Amino acid sequence: METLTHGRSPLTLREAEVLQVLIGGCTIEDASAQMGISAGTIRNYVSAAMDKTGARTRAEAARIAQEKGWLDP
Question: What residue ranges do the domains of the chain occupy?
Answer without folding.
Answer: 14-67
